[in-house]
Amino acid sequence: MGLTQPDDGTRQLLQTGIWTLAAGVLAALLSESVFGGIGPQGPHTSTGWIFLLIAMGCLPFGSMAFLLGGAKWLRNRRIASQSRVTELRLKPVSPDPKTLLSFSEQATEQHSHGKERQ
User: Fold this and answer.
1) pLDDT at position 76 over 80
2) Which helix (H) or strand (E) holds 114?
3) Does the pLDDT of residue 77 top 60, yes or no?
4) Are 37 and 43 in contact (CB under 8 A)?
C-alpha cells in the first residue's frame, strides 16, 4: 500500500533551482575563461560583463529555489512518515451522522444505558 503525495510543486522547484544554478555556474566559468577573464575592475569584454551579470542573477535565485525545494522535500517526507503512524478520523458529535463532525480521537457516546441512541 503506497502513499502518493499530491503534486505541490516540490519537484519543479528542485529542478528549477538545479538548472538555474547550473546556468549561473556555466555563465561565471564562461565569463572567466572564454570571454576575456575577470580582473580587479571586472571583466575585460562586454560579453564578459553580460555573462557575469547572468551569473550574478542566476546563482542567488537558483540557490534559494534549490534550498526551498529541499526544505519542502524534507517536510513532505516528515509528513508522510507521521501520517503512517497517526491518523485522526472524523467522528460524529451528534446522533445524526450528517451534521457536525469532530476531529476528536475520543469515541462519541452512542450508547445510553445499554440502548443505542436514535
Assistant:
1) yes
2) none
3) yes
4) yes
